[in-house]
User: Fold this.
Amino acid sequence: MSHHATTKLSSLLLRQLGPRLLSPSPFSGAMMETSKISRAMARNCTSMASTNAEKEEKPVPSSVAESDKTAIVSYWGVAPPKLTKEDGSPWKWNCFRPWEAYKADTTIDVKKHHKPVNSVDKLAFWTVQALKYPTYLFFQKRHMCHAMLLETVAAVPGMVGGMLLHCKSLRRFEQSGGWIKALLEEAENERMHLMTFVEIARPKWYERAIVFAVQGVFFNAYFLAYLASPKLAHRITGYLEEEAVNSYTEFLNDLEKGNFENVPAPAIAIDYWCLPPDSTLKDVIKVIRADEAHHRDLNHYASVCSSSSTSEKHELLIPLDLTKNLSSTRKTNI
Ligand SMILES: [Fe+2]
Ligand SMILES: [Fe+2]
Assistant:
């Protein structure tokens, strides 16, 4: 292929793929179209249902027909019910609901470290150490940028682990013991960390490009690692979470010293963590760090549960409220 043709092909690819891969929010841009499609699907579903059971027919609410400008986020293209906060003011978040808000346990031990004891632990520990130094070198004191990009990676393991356990549950016709939900909740919690940081700082184009490349590599590497050894994969995540706790502690220290402006907490964080209205970035970092400490414990425990040694499993059973803890990753205190 000639040089001219190569240049033409690459510029065509960039024109076609660039906006999709690197634009700030392709989904929000497509929301109008999606909502139209959803409404069309809803109408189809409604007409299909009417042929089978007239009684069950659920007409599209009048609010939907009123204006095409209203973006609708729901499975069936039907407007979700109007939700309110405790004080009666309207609930403005679609990415989480009032019953998903919670108070983080900030009393959790943020200095806990799992000492690598066997070869799997050591491999996981040194893998994370090898990843840590270039990351620190790259970000140095740019804590906000570090936190934002860290969260784009941190939200991957829970989703991959949850997805693979989901498939395993289907293949084996057996229950998961609450682990699927726990891991997916972890991924969702990490994504909410990201949504919070995005309210404070916007990623630059090259940061988006880094995230794009890192996600492609990390997702696939973690997927393969989890297939090969869930024990290793969870241990790696446990150590990644330990590093996340450390980096948030550094962030907090610099906020205490006044090296960064302690801006007011974003509204999304106040609602998600049930924080007082006058909360600041410092309060937000404290609750996020508590979440990371919780993920650390959950993943170190999951690594033990993935072990084939039954005696080892029994040693680390969470006392009393095991089931409750595993079904709600945010409240686990292992
Ligand atoms: Fe996080
Ligand atoms: Fe985390």
The CA atoms of residues 234 and 302 lie 6 Å apart.
